[in-house]
Amino acid sequence: MSRAPTLLCGVTAIILAWAGAAHAQVSPTHQAATTTTAATDDGAGAYRTQRYRNLFAERLGRSPQETHAKIEQAFQRLFHGDGQEERVYFETGANANGTLAYITDWANNDARTEGMSYGMMIAVQLGKKREFDALWNWSKTTMLTTDPANPSRGYFAWSMGTDGTPRATGAAPDGEEYYAMALYFAARRWGNGKGIYDYQKEADTILRGMRHHPVVTATPPFRIHPGDQPFVEPATPWPSPNNRHAQEQAQKAGKPWPPQRPHRAPRAVTVGPMVDEAHAMVRFVPETFIPGTDPSYHLPAFYELWARWGPREDRAFWARAASVSRDFFVKTADPGTGLGPDRADFDGTPLKNWDGSPGSFSYDSWRTISNWSVDSTWWNKDPRQQALSDRVQRFLSSQGIDRFADRYTLDGKPQSDRHSTGMLAAAAVGSLAATPGQVSDDFLRALWDTPVPSGEQRYFDGMLYLMSMMHVGGEFRVIDANNK
């Protein structure tokens, strides 16, 4: 049975919750910006050695040519394959800046900053400039919030209809993070152009906004662009395959559809930076009344580069954030299973799910093992990451590598009956950090043998599949002037 995941990044829940959420004006204390560059330790990983491991070659005996061909095949299917069953990338006309294109979450019938920025990262890593520029053009044109009355001005709206109409008016930090890193890589692969294609300038702008966005309070409804109609979430769920399946399940269970939500008058919303200055952590969302962080948003491998390439006044902050995130991975991982929650407080305590149930390992959480494992292979600064990968892979292997569920309680009780390619792929990236042996090899073999995702769930599964193939195959690299 294929049960379509929601993959909300949590932000839809914020839109549903903000009207009744109690919040206060928040004036975060910003540490004094420093204009000095933090002393940097280059570690002992690929950033220093320039050696990116191809585990398919090392451990499975596949040639570099076979690996590259498999990655290229996955790219062609997901970006240029059959429009109904294979691809998620769609070109949709042009404007003064050139071609426009979006990546769609087919099962949820929208385009998300998560997927747009993933698509850009894939494109720059594989040297696909047309696709990169088209995705960035659509992002800037459609998703960037420019209405002065919206407190999220300067951020990208995390979800938009593929027709360019909003599905949300707030932002999700994982999209901003991947946008910034992809743009820095583009500047080093292709050089900077003009306007929106001055990649370095655009990346700097995003990073400055993440840390220095003003604290602004306003009352919805909001617009994305001046002149838009105010966005008001509809009373019924958006039409999509996932919501159609949810309706069918509700009807079988004798539950009402759509779920009843109490009507509340809009209340003021305060939006600030995407990072918590005191803890040096990315926030779950920049809305100040929503607490905590998302472990899968922590990207120390990227933060190390921002500590070298980003705005000079923020480099010390990002160096600190990289170290903090490494500690945070250890704090949030269950001591038995290694599984971490979708959301956690800054001290690592899992936060409850939106329905009030205990925090659990779910769709966002899939990515966390990949995040610390990429950090391990690029920088090799934290020996604890090997134990973390071993723990997760050992637990999932015990569940059956071809059948483990895609959601669990943190102590390992299955909460779904779906086995997801995207979760398998992210777990296979754990082999970059894991102890070499049968278990880590089994994950590599399972990923290699898994076909390119297709059908309704091909968006999140497909993006994670392709990026994971690139990570494990040595084709996801730090792009710099000397090694592009």
Automatic annotation (TrEMBL):
It comes from the Bacteria. Keywords: Hydrolase. This is Glycosyl hydrolase family 8. It comes from Massilia orientalis.
